[in-house]
Structure formats: C-alpha cells, structure tokens
Amino acid sequence: MLYYLFVFVLRPHFSPLNVFRYITVRTAVASVTALVLSLVLGPWMIGRLRDLQVKQYIREEGPKRHQAKAGTPTMGGVLIVAAIVIPTLLWADLRNPYVVLAVAATLAFGAIGFVDDYNKVVRKHNRGLTAAGKFLLQVLTCVFVGAVLIGLQAKGVYSTQLSVPFFKRLHPNLVISSLLDHRFTWPLAYVPFVIFLVLVIAGLSNGVNLTDGLDGLAIGCVLISAVALTVLTYLSSNVRFADYLDIQKIPDAAELTIFCGSLAGASLGFLWYNAHPAEIFMGDVGSLALGGAIGTIAVILKQEILMLSIGGIFILELLSVVIQVGSFKLTGKRVLRMAPLHHHFELMGWGETKIIVRFWIIALVFALFALTTLKLR
Asked: What pTM does this model have?
C-alpha cells in the first residue's frame, strides 16, 4: 500500500522516493516496521490477554517446574501474524502471486492454531483440536498451496523440480510426466508433488509447534531461519547471484524477500517479551503459522531439502517425538526420557536458559551450514 503510494503516486513529484523501488530498501523498512509493531503492541496485547483470561494451561505429565508458568497469557501468535502480514501489505508489491500465497498460507495455518488455542481456553485444558483434526486441516491447507503452485507452473513461473544440495545436475521432477498427456489421469501426475508439500510444510509447522516448549526457544530458532531465508530469497531472485551460485533462478520471488524480512522483524520483536521468563506465549496460532510460513517459502524457492538444515532444530524436535512414540509402541521402551527433545535435556538436569541458548547456537550453525552449501555443487 505504501509501496504504491510512494513509487507510483508521489515519486514523480519527489524523486528521493525512488529508493522504495529497491527490494533491499523495502525489505529493511518492512523488517523495522514488523519489529516496531511487535515492540509497541506487545504490552497492550499482554494486558488484553490477561483481561480476557486467555492463559496457558500446562500439561501435568510435563516437567514439574513448568507448572509455575501456568496462567501466562497465550495466543501471542496473533501479534506475530499481524506483525508479519501488515508490513508485507504495506511494503510489498501485492500483484506478486508468491507474496499473496505466503500471506494466505500464514493466515490459514494461524487460523488452525487459533481454533486450537481457543478450544484450550474455553475448555480450560491443554488439549484443543484432536491430532487427527488438526492434521487434516493442515493437509487441506497444503493442498491449497499445491494447487496454487501447480497453476503457476502452468503459467511457466514455477517448477516442480527439486534442487538437491551438492549435486549440480540432479533435479528430480515430482510430477509423473507420463500421466500428463492423458485426459483422465493427469491429476494423478501431481500426487507425489502434493504429498511432498504436505511432508515439508505440515512437517515444519508441527516441528515449530513441538519446539515451542521453553521460553524463547521456538521464536529464536524461527528468527535464525527467517534471516537465512531472507538471504536465500534475495539470492534466488537475483539473476547474477543465482547464476554465480548455480541455484534455481526465481525472479518473481524477489518480492518474497520483503515477507521474509517481516518474518524476521516480527520474530525479533516477539522474542523481547517471550524471552525467559516469558511474559507471553505464542500458542499454536503462532507456532503453526510460523512453521507454515517458512515451509511455504521453502517450496516456493525450491529449497525444500535445504530446509532440513535451515530448520534443523524443528526437524530434530519432530523426529524425537516420532522416534519416541514409535519405539514405545513397538517395544514398550522409550528412547528419550521425554519428548520433544528439549524436555529430555530438562530431565537430564540442564537449566532452561542453557537449553535455549544451546539450541539457538545449533540452529545458527545449521543455518550457516545451509548457506555455505550453495556454492558447493
């Protein structure tokens, strides 16, 4: 909105506004806007949630010291989503389909989390939607994302080929080309692609959700991932950098850099209030939205495999739960003292702050490793 005002309306009369044509400038301004929104609206949001008795209910089977956190305002993810979407709407070119898709996916996953959190508040319990119900809604959202991307592929602005790190000429296609020419079977050609999207986007959404168990842990890791994705988006959309690094060129994704910058700024601002001891929790409305956002960005950039490193902490947290549940059902024994992974270290005697900072360090190492692999092909 401000982008149109400054560039198309006021720039002809005031030439310095020409700087807002540049992606880097608008990304920086969007990041600052998101940060300021989070910092300014944070105290109001915390107070409002307290007045409405929107408080966190702690599961009884978790570490006992977490019971002291009961009553902390939750659903702070509403603030995060607003701090991502508003700067994006202000500073991005809304004619860009990737920006619209990223915003829509974030809002959709946030809505799923909102319903889940609302049920918890109403029932005054730590259980909201059933696992099956929540996953079904996530799958439907992923199918929507897949349908949009398939439409963009038909227009020649998106590719269903994967980019595989370390392999320069390996680009497997997730679409079964032999089925595309048949009138009745062509929808089946896209089934592997949609299933892959579900694994990536829903997996990351649930991974962030599971990581959100300690003060500032999830949002700090999201901040690191968001910064890495901002860099990756800019490189992928710049023809010269993409050619030099030999990564897939996606010029239309340039405006998505602004969304990533807003994501980073909103995460940093929320961390101010979510740092230990937390004044507010993001709830599922925040964690599902953030995971859905970074997952959607990954599939747009064709860097789904690289997200195994950029979002390494989320993957580890998700795998810890899968392994723990699978081991207990198959053998009756637990691999970890408790899942997700951060609870295992709590029961080992690690302090909460030590776990958080060490996980941040690991997340930073994962992100830096992912960026260094871009030239290793």
From this structure: 0.93
